[in-house]
Write a structure and sequence with these properties.
The protein is mainly β. Helices cover 1% and strands 38% of the residues. Strands 48, 49, 50, 51, 52, 53, 54, 55, 56, 57 and 58 form an eleven-stranded mixed sheet that branches. A seven-stranded mixed sheet has the order 37-47-46-40-44-43-41, with no helix packed on it. The relative contact order is 0.06.
């Protein structure tokens, strides 16, 4: 190769040259190493020769070697009758090659090709599956399904025979015709594995003794490199076909299969011979019965045969390929002849019937004369489908469900759209035709909503996309099924692996992995080229492949008590659980990269319970994962749980503005339960439902020596309708920030809203705090706005230098939330405040220092968590009323606590005593002290009725309380519009005149009985039994149908309350 210009090759550089050629077929041992020689085209040393540099090839890649030879290859004819068109079994065993599937050198782009060829086309003729010849050749580009040629596929050592993606062949008129099978990447032949496939062939008697009758070549998908090769000859000696009327040449004219659909315990057949007496089946003749599919039947080593005429029969079994799939019957010397009108029935028993089952198949038989009767062997062969007299001349066995599993799925939470991929291996081969399609019907568990189905664009390694016809997938919402019809001309091969996909909507309720209802099913139906549709047994995809539909851990928060890189911090973690976590269950927390729950070399870690957290918890840590095994159960049903856990921050923030999110998952010992993937310092969600803060705050190289926040009025903004003043004081001892501007960010808990219209609302003077003025201003790039989703984050800029050991302060207006952050009443955030100097990233500048702001009196002065229960809802009835609530401010002597009841309710008497109190139970619920007196009063103004507790000498500190009184329900129902505004109110006052509010009031809706409906029924009759929506068996999930009539119109956006009897779970 001559380079085109000077200066192309330079000294001491590496170049690559690619030359494509064909390896020598004969010279497999080279005496000298090949070399590469480079000529400059010049004679610089003037020795009369062009200067040359050369080097020998190193290693062994230059040697030419034969590809690995197959460990075995054999061609097993079924019949010995020459010139009979019959099934043959080609079996072979692969050797070892790095290019086979599962090995390191496999071609993961083009896969591999298996080529079958013969140089003896006059002795061996292959046929298509329908018996026609390969008269014309085809090309790979036609993408023909291999079921047009192959009848059976089987693998012994490999997982399954890989589904060939396409086949093509030469015209058999060529001197060396070939048939090709292509396998997709990752779904080819494996090393040291035995394979068998069955096809129709015609063999001439001259094929006896020809060792290389058929050749096999396994080629890399590129069509150039060979992976393995071998040749095979036939394993039986062929004899001439019998001719009607010739002496000692028995002729079989009819094979009837009786009562074999399905086969139960035995096989019955009736044989008829040719009409000529020389062609009758007589004593000492041998009958071979071939059981199809040959690769499936393995009857064992013995059998028993009887004749309906009482003549004796000797029964043995033979093999065609690896299996004992042939019954050989030798007729007794005293057997009467069987002619063309015979009614003699053979019954063969003691056979092992294939447990996998098979769709309708013909059988075949062969008759020949015993060797001791004549030195000339002749045989007659016939299939039951060829010599049909009428009726169903076939055999079948109920097909098993096959093996299936959910391979993967795209979503795991309730009500998410979920793409579910299912892998399925049929127990029996099914051929799809235009008249009789193969069909797969998939049914997800109750609660899923089917949307669509089909074949994926790509399948997992070892599987292929199911050959679904275009437009062949139909999903029915009512029956919760998807039916996938295979394309005409395609086959689903027994044991091969197919992948299909379903798009479903996950249930509205969580579903545990081990829930008895969490069962996916798949059913195959179709035929194998003969007869009507048959249904396989239902395949249950197995608990091991089921996946849990997870509930959502809501309001999940992880807040560190420090933001300094490389330090050990205490994380305050809380969440609201949808499902109960039983004792022995687990809470798993996964931290962002760089975090570690493992403090030192020990894997032990410890939790510090805050709210609703068990004391017995076993904590083990491994890097960024902490597993918390619970000694007691965690309540579900939207219960709030809070605890603390130590972790170590990354040594540095690596210049990133924020760490990734935490993840929290709860599980029982058998299944995942609830999860949340994006957990940060705040759980507040935007209008779209997505987290406002999807990542953690990260860490800073320095902390602050002092960082505090104080709010002058902790009443909720909804009560006062005015913003409070938040004063922030900070100081550090080892840092100067002498550049400006630097971004300063104040992160307030969720619910707080910064209410600053301009810099005039930001007080940066240190007067009254013994502090210096803070050189700060509002950031013009992030102007505060009470309507922003992140209105709890205040962005400032420095206007001058900040120095160490200097106390700074500033004050800004902020709206106080209705309930204390980090509590059950306001779980959208933790209660921690943060102050950061330099937030990193493209706009935040260099990270300099940050700290958690400690807050004096963090409790919002509001009653929270008011829940009202009544013992009866019957109109006019008197019953107990229990109200539970949480207070934030201490009520001292003379203080008042009022429970205001809605209009229509009245005070109830108990045991003849008016205005009496009951008892409240519960470990976490305290009662109002006994020295507080209870009065039933009518409030001035609107005349509302209220229960009033006057606090005595025993104060009522902040806490969770319960009160119990007796009320009479409204006798008549209120108007529809009035019913929506009816509520119980809990109010607290610091003085007896009820002028000084202690905590903002809380309300709870009144569940008031409306007018009686004219009609209301739980419908159990007139429901279509085939709909499958009603199942009243214990422990099952059922739809419940209600019918009702309204007495009057109800405005839009109303609610319907359905209360089920005890024991039911809605």
């Amino acid at each position: 190769l001559e380079l085109a210009r000077d200066g192309v090759a330079f000294w001491n550089r590496t170049y690559t040259l690619s030359v494509t050629g064909t390896n020598s077929a004969s010279n497999t041992s080279l005496a000298t190493r090949p070399e590469i020689r480079i000529s400059s085209g010049r004679d610089e040393d003037e020795n009369g020769h062009v200067d040359v540099w050369s080097a020998d090839f190193g290693g062994s890649l230059y040697t030419v070697q034969h590809p690995p030879k197959l460990l075995a290859a054999e061609l097993h004819p079924s019949t010995v009758a020459a010139a009979a068109k019959a099934r043959v079994v080609l079996g072979f065993t692969t050797s070892i090659s790095t290019r086979l599937t599962g090995e390191t050198g496999e071609n993961l782009v083009r896969g591999m090709v298996l080529r079958l060829y013969t140089s003896h086309a006059t002795l061996l003729r292959l046929h298509r599956a329908d018996g026609t010849d390969f008269d014309t050749g085809t090309t790979e580009g036609e993408w023909l399904d291999c079921s047009l040629w192959l009848l059976e596929l089987w693998a012994v050592d490999a997982v399954s025979f890989p589904h060939p993606s396409s086949c093509w062949w030469d015209s058999w008129a060529q001197s060396q015709p070939s048939v090709y099978l292509r396998f997709d990447a990752g779904n080819g032949l494996r090393a040291r594995s035995k394979y068998e496939f069955v096809f129709l062939a015609t063999l001439k008697e001259a094929a006896n003794g020809v060792e290389g009758l058929i050749g096999l070549e396994i080629m890399d998908g590129d069509g150039i490199s060979y992976i393995g090769y071998g040749q095979a000859g036939i394993t039986k000696t062929l004899v001439p076909m019998s001719i009607e009327g010739q002496v000692n040449q028995v002729v079989l004219r009819s094979l009837e299969v009786l009562g074999a659909e399905p086969i139960e315990n035995n096989v019955q057949i009736r044989l008829k011979s040719g009409a000529h007496s020389n062609s009758e089946i007589v004593a000492n003749n041998i009958v071979r019965l071939f059981l199809f599919p040959l690769t499936l039947w393995n009857v064992g080593s013995s059998c028993t045969a009887t004749r309906s005429d009482g003549a004796l029969v000797d029964c043995t079994t033979e093999r065609t390929g690896r299996n004992a799939n042939v019954v050989t019957m030798t007729l007794d010397p005293n057997s009467p002849p069987i002619g063309d009108n015979s009614s003699t029935i053979f019954t063969i028993s003691g056979l092992r019937i294939p447990s996998e089952g098979f769709f309708r198949e013909p059988l075949a038989a062969e008759v020949w004369t015993h060797p001791r009767e004549t030195p000339d062997y002749f045989a007659s062969f016939l299939g039951s489908a060829d010599g049909r007299l009428g009726g169903n001349n076939f055999a079948s066995k109920a097909v098993a469900g096959g093996a299936g599993a959910v391979a993967r799925h795209s979503a795991r939470h309730t009500q998410e759209s979920n793409e579910v991929h299912i892998e399925f291996s049929p127990a029996a081969t099914c051929r799809s035709t235009a008249a009789m399609s193969c069909r797969l019907t998939v049914t997800p568990p109750d609660g899923f909503t089917v949307v669509s189905a089909g074949a994926p664009d790509a399948a997992s390694m070892g599987c292929v996309p199911a050959p679904v016809a275009a437009g062949g997938a139909t999903c029915k919402l009512r029956t919760r099924t998807c039916s996938l019809v295979m394309a005409a001309g395609a086959a689903l091969w027994a044991g091969a692996c197919y992948e299909l996909s379903l798009l479903v909507d996950n249930p509205t309720r969580p579903l545990a992995k081990n829930d008895p209802d969490n069962t996916w099913t798949l059913q195959q139906s179709g035929a194998n080229g003969w007869g009507l549709r048959e249904w396989a047994q239902t395949s249950y995809l197995g608990e091991q492949s089921s996946f849990a539909v997870l509930g959502r851990l809501t309001s999940a928060v992880v807040q560190p008590d420090s933001l300094i890189c490389g330090t050990t911090v205490q994380l305050r973690i809380h969440f609201v659980a949808a499902q109960r976590v039983p004792a022995g269950g687990m809470v798993q927390i996964t931290a962002p990269e760089g975090f570690s729950f493992q403090i030192g070399s020990s894997s032990d870690c410890y939790t510090d319970g805050q709210v609703n957290w068990p004391s017995a918890v076993t904590c083990t840590a491994e890097g960024s994962i902490a597993n918390l095994t619970l000694g007691a159960a965690l309540d579900g049903d939207d219960s709030f749980h809070s605890f603390e856990l130590k972790a170590t921050y990354p040594s540095s923030n690596s210049g990133q503005p924020a760490q990734g999110p935490f993840q929290i998952v709860t599980s029982s010992p058998l299944s995942l339960l609830d999860a949340v993937e994006n957990v940060s310092w705040s759980a507040q969600a935007g209008a779209s439902g997505s987290p406002v803060f999807s990542e953690g705050l990260g860490c800073w190289p320095n902390g602050l020596w002092l960082a505090e926040v104080e709010i002058d009025d902790m009443f909720p903004y909804s009560l006062t309708e005015r913003a409070a003043n938040a004063t922030i004081v900070f100081q550090w001892s080892d840092l100067d920030i002498d550049v400006s501007p630097v971004e300063v960010v104040v992160y307030a808990p969720a619910g707080y809203i910064w209410d600053l219209g301009s810099n005039a609302d930001l007080n940066v003077t240190g007067t009254g705090h013994g502090a210096a003025d803070a050189p700060l201003m509002l950031s013009p790039m992030r102007t505060p706005d009470v309507d922003l989703e992140d209105a709890n984050v205040l962005h400032l800029l420095t206007t001058g230098a900040l120095y160490r050991q200097t106390l700074y302060t500033f004050t800004a207006s902020v709206r106080v939330p209705d309930a204390t952050p980090g509590s059950q009443a306001n779980p959208a955030s933790g209660s921690f405040w943060y102050l950061a100097f330099g937030s990193g990233g493209s706009s935040g500048g260099e990270r300099r220092a940050a700290a958690r702001l400690t807050q004096k009196e963090p409790q919002v002065r509001a009653v929270s968590g008011l829940v009202v229960h009544r013992s009866t809802a019957t109109p006019g009835a008197v019953g107990a009323l229990i109200a539970t609530f949480t207070t934030a401010t201490t009520l001292h002597e003379g203080g008042r606590l009022l429970l205001e009841i809605p209009a229509g309710f009245a005070f109830g008497a108990h045991l003849g005593q008016a205005c009496s109190r009951g008892s409240v139970g519960g470990e976490d619920t305290a009662e109002i002290p006994a020295d507080a007196t209870l009065d039933c009063i009518q409030l001035p103004g609107d005349g509302s009725l209220a229960f009033e507790w006057s606090i005595g000498a025993t104060s009522v500190p902040p806490g969770h309380y319960g009160v119990s009184v007796f009320v009479q329900n409204p006798v008549t129902s209120p108007g529809v519009a009035d019913s929506y505004s009816m509520a119980f109110w809990l109010r607290t006052y610091s003085d007896s005149s009820r002028t000084t509010i202690a905590d903002a009031a809380a309300s709870a809706p009144a569940d008031v009985s409306m007018k009686t409906l004219p009609q209301a029924d739980l419908v159990t009759e007139y429901i279509d039994s085939g709909s499958g929506i009603s199942d009243w068996r214990p422990g099952r999930t059922t739809w419940v149908v209600f019918a009702f009539e309204l007495r009057e119109d109800i405005p839009p956006a109303f609610e319907i309350l359905v209360r089920a009897p005890m024991g039911f779970q809605v």
